[in-house]
Every structure is written in C-alpha cells, then in structure tokens.
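A common beginner's mistake is to predict each chain separately and then try to dock the pieces by hand. The better habit, illustrated here, is to supply every component at once so that their relative placement is modeled jointly.
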Amino acid sequence: MDDPFVIAGEAMGSRLIMGTGGAPSLDVLDRALAASGTELTTVAMRRVDPAAAGSVLEVIAARGIRVLPNTAGCFTAAEAVRTARLAREALGTDWVKLEVIADERTLLPDPVELLDAADLLVADGFTVLPYTSDDPVLARRLEQAGCAAVMPLGAPIGSGLGIRNPHNIELIVEAATVPVVLDAGIGTASDATIAMELGCDGVLLATSVTRARDPELMAEAMRAAVTAGRLAFLAGRVPRRRYATASSPPLAG
Amino acid sequence: MKVIINGSTHELAADASVGDAVRLVTTSASGIAAAVNGEVLRRACWDTTPVADGDQVEVISASQGG
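With all components supplied together, the output reads:
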C-alpha cells in the first residue's frame, strides 16, 4: 500500500523516526537502524571527541538514512538557535528537531523558550520539527509559527511510560494540518501502535530500541508496530460496545 | 596567545586562524562546525578569520543522541 509519510514536501516510506541515543555501540546501532526501516534519524551536536572511534554520521550515511540534528541539551531559545545553526553548517541540512528543555530531571519542554526558538528558526529558513508537550494549544501555536510538524511527547524522554494522555494526542491530531509525530515515552511496541491508532502520522523513538535487551529485534518490532497501527487507523476500528454482538449468524429455529 | 578551544586552553601562534584552532582538536574534514565567541562561522571563512587572545572556540560534530 502506497502511503508515504510527507514532511515539508519530502516523502518517506517509513513512519518510524529513530533516534541514535543510547546504543551500546555503533555496530549495534547500525543493525538496529537497518532493522527499523527508518529513513530519518536524529543525532545530537556535541564538542568533537578526538578519541572517538568511528562516526555515527558514517553509519547513518552508509545506510542511506537522512540525518535530523537535534538541539538536545539546550535550555534557552538562544542556545537552541545557535545549536541549530551549528548543525546546519556541520551537516548541510536545514531540518532540525527543536528541543528546548526546562530541567534535567523531567526533560520536559520549556514552552515559552520553545515557541521563541521556533519563531527565530522559521524566520532563519529552518524546517523546524519541535519536540513539545502534549498540550493542544501549544501544538497549535507551534504550527502557526510555521513549524513543519509537531512532535508531542507521550511521556518524558527515556521514561518508557507510553502515552499518558491519549485524549490530548487525539486533540492535537484533530486540529493539526501538519504531521503529528509522537515523540518520547514509547516503552514497547504496543505504545507505538497506539500512537498510530490515535492518528499520529509517525513515531519518534530511541531508548525503547537502543536500550532494549536486543536492540535489533526491538527495532524490527517497532517497525511492525508502527505499520500495524497505521493500517488499523486507516482501516477504522469497530465501535466499542457494552454488550456482545454475535459474530456468527443465529442458529436456525 | 592563548585560545580556549572546547573548554581547554591552547597556545597558538600570533597569526593563527580559526582553521588552525579547529585542526588542533580534529582531523575530520566534514561534519564539523565552529563558533567563535558564540557566533557560528562558515567553514569557507575559517582560514581567513584570525583568532584573538582569549577567544572561545567551539568545535562540534554529530554524536549519538535524540
């Protein structure tokens, strides 16, 4: 079934965006990326490490996957804008996963700084994919600011708590005219399926794969889960009923 | 003169450029960006932009994350 995932006019065959954080080695990451089928993967921007063996960029490029730099670790709009500009210079892409967090303990987005940064980056020509809280109003404001997608969290980054407020995710999906990507909180395959059944256009995850006992196998599970959820969403679930509806015809009198 | 590159102090020649500073911490030819005192500097300008005593140079690349 031809059902491309389109962000800012770019079509992708996979609705799973995989992050690269948390993998125990580049080799494990490489196999997980391949098993996930992802066509877009995030990286962080950090000081060069002269002692680093191998490069995450080489692994990503060898798989033909598009790279999405993030602004992880930034607490203010000014820091996030500078990091995005460094990423554009280093990686030659104007796409950015915009993260502006409020504190280390929750890693929750700071909505005021996030919206500020989105305004500045859109004005500077970036394709902005903001990691946001599951607040439908903030999602709307980010879309109005010109973001190419909105990426609400299901639960805090790395928590694996799944989708704590599916009702809010539904409200965001209902109102959005840009793609909605469920970002953060996925713990296992069923969480990814639920995100897609709620109508999200894609899922972004890292920890649930990279820190699984078998990352490659979990990547394959996530690939199937996102596909299953998408197909179920398109197919349309049956209504929930309080009492039984016989699925076999009644016995003849 | 002393230049702070990625948080560490380095001794550079008086006529050193941003390119010289970058090459002190990495041999990578791609996937690198640099900022001087918080301002991102295009790669094409690295070798023609001098660094000054006390400048803070950040040299960054992609790492696993997100």
